[in-house]
Description:
With about 325 residues, the chain is α/β, with parallel strands linked by helices. Helices cover about 35% and strands about 15% of the residues. Helix 3 runs parallel beside helix 4 and helix 4 crosses helix 5.
Amino acid sequence: MGALTPHVQIQLSAGQPSSKEIMSNKVVITCALTGVLTDPKQHPVPVTIKQMAASAQEAYDAGATIMHVHFRKQEEGKGHQASWEPELALEMDRAIRDACPGVLLNYTTGVMGRDQSKPIDMLRAGKPELAALNAGSLNYLKVRSNGRWAWLPLMFENPVEKVEEMLDVMRELGVRPEFECFDIGIVRCVGMYQDVGLIDRASYNFVVGVASGMPADPDLLPLLLKYIKPGAHWQSTVIGRKEVWAFHRRTAELGGNLRTGLEDTFYLPNGERATGNGELISAMASIAEDVGRSIASPEETREIELSARAFSGGKRKNTASEGAHVVKL
């Protein structure tokens, strides 16, 4: 028998486990319901309010207690396009919460350029418990098998002042930021945000499998964990086909929280295509239980996630640039 993870050791230790040990063995599962831009004519992604609520309920029934939400245009033929309408966010928010009692919502905030006024308006309207926050810039690239770019090279622009602006809004609204990290340098940047007082406690989301970011290699996880702040919450978002499941298993073994959904993959562990989010979450829950983790309920999720407060209250300590020297290149 190989080395046991700390979570399995809890179950095998002598005596009755403490409530703290029981909670540390819990795993929170997030469902990334739909993503952005994927064409619903080609893939089974939910788009309408009714579809999103029904898909969320399938995922919720299978064990997901957080829904990561992108909003899409509701007009016929435009479901592959993003929407930033606050009214749509509110209506979809209510529909998902009605279908999934006690669920937590995690809004997207990612935009390619510097202007993020529309995501900010949506946060102000919906005031979700959590929101994704892209923690650093990335060349967003992919090459086809014929040696051509899959799309024109893009810069996913997330300078510090953009991150700082979003953090100020989240602090004001009581929304916990989940820092999306596409490479190890961005992981280290999140630690610096905590060091300079932009946040009090970091929460990391390792995004792997993007062609120009970190690979979906399970051997990478122990290295990433060396560079996060002690006691920080973390999870993995794994983009790809059936190879994503080995990384999810390693995440569960090492104590991280889990995320999957049609935003991230269309494939089940056996290589078959998923027909919906419920199948993907069921597969994730099985992996968690296989390695000795138990699935957090909505109430436990709320305790786990919202106890990891990013902001201690009051104003932040300083701006990111306060006291800094200007470097001329």
